[in-house]
Amino acid sequence: xxxxxxxxxxxxxxxxxxxxxxxxxxxxSKNADCNIKMSSTFSDKExxxxxxxxxxxxxxxxxxxxxYVSKRSESLTASLNTEVIKSYYNSLKSISEDLDTDSNNxxxxxxxxxxxxxxxxxxxxxxxxxxxIQEGILEAINKTIEFRTVEGAALEKALRxxxxxxxxxxxxxxxxxPQRIERLKERLRNQIAEFENNENxxxxxxxxxxxxxxxxLDINEEKVRLSQHLKYFIQTLEQPKSNGKKLGFISQEIxxxxxxxxxxxxxxxxxKIVVNMKDELEKIKEQNLNIL
Length: 292
What we know:
Mean pLDDT: 86
Number of strands: 6
Oligomer: single chain
Largest sheet: 4 strands, mixed
Helix content: 55-70%
């Protein structure tokens, strides 16, 4: 069963100690590209979260948004970061003097800047609340995987349809190939008749050229390989684990055989069918980009 790389999961946590909202969004990407936006309260957990997201969601652009608000009155106990305030103020004052602008409101600006206040009980809050938030994140990940599975079912249906269409077109090529061969034989007979009347005709050389010509135009091996690749694609779709990269490799092999049939067939009717095959293959390649 395949999974899409497009996913979404959302969880809200509300209790007497805090409220939190967790949101995960994923899009297609070759590798795991994690982006985490969360309260600075849990900044020390970022590496742990990156590893968790990469492990569970494997691939794709992954965005985690964690909003957290504590309801504890003691968590509001704060002290001023004097050194930070001084640094902000001096930097802004220097800039103000360079630009010759008003510096009356600098302190007010500084007090709204990050890390001006330090919360004294932050470590205790983190230890107490983190296990609950971690559970919420795992739930959001599971919802994202469920979303990906539903999207994957739709992708699988589209891929199966395209493979069925290519298989049908291959059957038409198989039906037309004997007629193509007869036309080639007729053309060769006429050319042989012309050459035989030529006094410089070299029978051995002609036989070698004829064998080379026939091998160059024979598409039996390509038809067999294409049929095998199409079956293998379906078998890979049906495997328990989603494998978009493998499906991508198989679709490349399918494309190689389709192109070879088109170039070797040297037949207008077959080449029209090959164009339709390529159209279906493009649909497969587009869908493959979003498969986990």
